[in-house]
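Record now logged underneath.
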Amino acid sequence: DKKEDRKEADKSAALAAAERKLLNCPLDKDELGSATWSFLHTMAAYFPEKPTRQESNDMKTFFDVFSKFYPCSTCAEDLREQLKITPPETSSQNELSQWLCRIHNEVNKKLGKPIFDCKLVGQRWKDGWLDGSCD
């Protein structure tokens, strides 16, 4: 069944990633993507709730430049297209986090991965889960 196949693929990928990590090998596309999303979501989680005009503009510039130099060329191209359709929302920390969550979910849809509930970005990327499992 499809779910079991996905589980096996995930397990194989995790083992391969663990081996590469032990050998200090370069990141593969999936590892790079995961690390990048972690960085971007964490950065958004710590963006000011009331950014100055400069901070807001700087964040927009960051995503523009980031989309030009990201090491996965197809990923970078997809991001540039997405930025044309949905530019970064940088009026507050919450707006940026929600915007990034929507962008990430667009990528997840494309890749057949689960959609993340954007109401949970604060718990996932800044405060930790309410059940205390991150304490």
